[in-house]
Amino acid sequence: MEYISLIVGPLETNCYLVYCPETLECAVVDPGAEAGNITHQIAEKELKPRLILNTHGHVDHIGANRDIKDKYDIPLFIHSADSPMLESVLQSEMGIFLGAKDSPPADHFLDDGEEIKIGKSHLKVIHTPGHSPGSVSFLGDGFLLSGDTLFFGGVGRTDLPGGSWQEMADSIRNKILTMPEEMIVLPGHGPHTTVGQEKWSNPFIT
After folding, report:
1. Does the reported pTM lie above 0.85?
2. Is 141 helix (H, G, I), strand (E, B) or coil?
């Protein structure tokens, strides 16, 4: 499995195109904004979108769900605990500021441990609440899409509605830092890192 990273929107959200190199089938992970940029990359790489995955429901990660779903007619996956956020995009000042569109409802709710097939590859769903109740990470072959749970030198904020520092700490320590240290971490914002780098130097968890 391979991936392409794009930085989209005023909050510089990382959107990922995760794809099977054999079939070129792909998942669009966190299309937060700039749908045109995302679709351009898809066309340039000749990828075949099969689904949209949201690591969580905050507007900077779902703002282009509508455009991507409408263009490719593909299902949208999110954890049930964050699904209400899909309905409130245009009710928030942040949504208006980011130019987000209302999101379609979810077609499928993600479960912890579920495996999502993408071509001949798959991603494993890991429920990592803390930043939001329904935050999930996606485990691929040698990499982890951590959403806004774990960053290079930082962690996601927990002061937003539904956030919990206790759950965040548990998710990071017991679900992410137990992975091999060479595991690449692809966060929702900022540069990539590794489990080992964060395990030994992240000031929020060391």
Report:
1. yes
2. coil
